[in-house]
Design a protein that fits this description.
mainly beta, 26% strand
Length: 61
């Protein structure tokens, strides 16, 4: 398999921007992809809320 097939070895974690809907805090969460975080949203480090928007395009930051 070559890199053209989409396999280029282990993927580096990405820093995905996240925004808490509760307190408005934004931060970057390390994950393999934005879709991983959308399936299992992280907890806000500020208030502990799980009402978190994943913002891979960085619209909110």
């Amino acid at each position: 398999m070559s890199w053209r097939d989409g396999w280029d070895g282990p993927r580096e974690p990405l820093d995905i921007p996240c925004v808490c809907e509760g307190c408005g805090r934004s931060w970057k969460e390390e994950a393999e992809s934005a879709s991983c975080l959308e399936e299992e949203p992280p907890e806000c480090p500020e208030c502990g809320s799980e009402d978190v928007t994943v913002d891979p395009e960085g619209r909110f930051s």
